[in-house]
Amino acid sequence: MSAGTPRLSRTTLAASRPRGVQLPAVDPADLRVGLVHLGLGAFHRAHQAVYTEDAAAAAGETRWGILGVTQRSARVVDQLAPQDGLYGVLTKGTDQTSLRLVGSLRDVAFPGTDTPRVVATIAAPGTHVVTLTVTEKGYRRAADGGPDLQDPDLAADLAALAGELRGAHPDSPARSPLGLLLRGLALRRRRDAGPLTVVCCDNLADNGAVLAALVAATLDAVPGGDRLRDWVEASVRFPGTMVDRIVPATTEAHRAEARALLGLDDAGLVVGEPFSQWVVEDRFAGPRPAWERAGATLTEEVAPFERAKLRVLNASHSTLAYLGALRGHVTIAQAVADPDLVAAARALIDDDVLPTLVAPDGLDLAGYRDDVLARFANPNTGHTTVQVAMDGSVKLPQRLLGTVRDRLDAGAVPTAAAGAVAAWIAYVRATTQGELEVDGWRVPLDDPMAPALAAAAEGPLGSLADRMLDVRAVFGDDVAGSAPFRTAVRAAVAELVTVRA
Ligand code: CS2
Fold first, then answer.
1. Do residue 246 and residue 107 come from a single domain?
2. Pocket test residue of 313, 348, 378 for ligand 1, highest count of atoms within 8 A of CB
3. Where is the Mannitol dehydrogenase N-terminal domain (predicted)?
4. What is the 3-state secondary structure (H, E, C) of 370-407?
5. Of these four, 122, 194, 248, 363, which has the most CB atoms within 10 Å of its CB?
6. What ipTM does this complex have?
């Protein structure tokens, strides 16, 4: 924040009328809440909230204001509430920067203090859609894909849910997104407030079906959950989606750039590349924003798009992140400019990923690959290798191991994908041994499984690949049990750790 510069809000914006900035297409004060979003991070603000604003403006509708719910801290509420929900999206292209302000966020909430209000809003008749971006780890899934009942936050939430199911209205703060959603659904059912659509916008393969199954399995594990499960089955839809926009963490330099354009301080600023895509399965239980009028694709079949995006973009992103960080590259743009690393990313896509894909209608996969690599090369987003590298234990199974499984099933040895797995293993080893420095900073392992991974990474280098592949929660029995894959990963790890030694 800059002393002396007023803070963005409806009042300061009306008084300053900045030029060269795209003003909000809707005024948050005119909106009613029709959509609850769980996981109010930068990605939502740079993606679905923008589509929702453009859709509301195009259709002239005021019923799609968003109640944005943060996950773990009240920080985002402190950033956005004093700004009346207004914030900017700074778009950083290869040779152009622009700033637009977004007005679709009607209200913000923090589960630590606002759980009853969020639960009541999910249960309100005017709410028709719940969207989620809580990251892969936010779902608290166990290795088998069901709810991780050992997770203390989820366990506490399920106890509160059992109370809600008995009609006790517990007001304890929800500690997990799933807990919050289920309490909202329980109240919605009790109030008979009508059907609801829950849209998972995270990078999980088959995200809609996965969330539907997780909700059902969780309700099976809660005393008295069966009636709610039946209601969910009849009244709640979980369409699948493919979301895409590169959204790096906002830095002080971004804030200063936005301040210069806007003349106001924006604590809620987010940053994105120019590209944005949203493919949504058109299977809603009730009304929805006219997202297609904002450039989203509403379609019968999302899976081919989702699969192509996860396997081409996200998998090569992770590969570049691990290999790049190991070489000291700070940004993804630097990593993809390194000839060895772009060759590894291309080999992954060409040799192993593309043979597993069926091109979605109208998509040329080789062209898609080239576009993705060109987006990574944008030097102005400043997206860091370390940011993309986080949470590998929950990202790899979604973006890389499906490719490995399909290749093994086809009788092929996915050597390039084994190289990508090896890059992650080398990264885990280097970070947990305190050996990785990027940008003059010793990088720790940022991963929900960090203790278990550190334990597996400890020990002789010669058996490092085997110890890591034996982490079944990541690799499953099938991938871990494939002898040819193990051989390929061993060879790739040996090459990476020797080169580094
Ligand atoms: C990235 C994604 O951090 C990561 O894991 O691969 O966030 C990626 O930038 C988005 O999925 C792009 O749509």
1. yes
2. 313
3. 35-292
4. HHHHHHHCCCCCCCEHHHHHCCHHHHHHHHCHHHHHHH
5. 122
6. 0.99
Compute CA 452 distance to the chain's CA centroid, rounded to the nearest angstrom: 23
Ligand 1 atom closest to the CA of 388, numbered from 1: 3
For 92, list phi and psi in degrees, rounded to 5.
-110, 100
- Going by CA atoms, what residue is nearest to atom 3 of ligand 1? 388
In a domain, 30, yes or no: yes
What is the Cα–Cα distance from 471 to 451, expressed in whole angstroms? 12
CA angle, 380 then 323 then 347, to 5°: 95
Q: Spell out which residues line ligand 1, taking CB within 6 angstroms.
A: 203, 244-246, 314, 317, 387-388, 395
Number of structural domains in the chain: 2
- Number of separate helices (H) and strands (E) present in the chain: 23, 14
Identify the domain containing residue 355 by its residue range. Answer: 303-500
Q: Whose CA is nearest to atom 5 of ligand 1?
A: 388
Residues 192 and 318 in one domain: no
Query: Residue 388 Cα, ligand 1 centroid: separation in angstroms?
Result: 7
Q: Are residues 166 and 290 in the same domain?
A: yes
Average pLDDT of each block of 10 consecutive residues along the chain (501 residues)? 87 91 97 98 98 98 98 93 98 96 98 96 98 97 92 95 87 95 96 98 97 97 95 98 98 96 97 98 98 98 96 98 98 98 98 96 94 97 97 98 98 98 98 96 97 98 98 97 98 84 44
Asked if 173 and 54 sit in the same domain, the reply is: yes
Tell me: do 313 and 278 sit in the same domain.
Answer: no
Cα–Cα distance for residue pair 133/191, rounded to 1 Å: 26
Looking at the structure, do residues 259 and 369 belong to the same domain, yes or no? no
Residue 81 within any structural domain of the chain: yes
pLDDT value of position 501: 44
**pLDDT score recorded for residue 28:** 97
Quick one: pLDDT at residue 1? 63
Residue 4 lies inside a defined structural domain of this protein: no
How far apart are the CA of 304 and the centre of ligand 1, in A?
A: 18
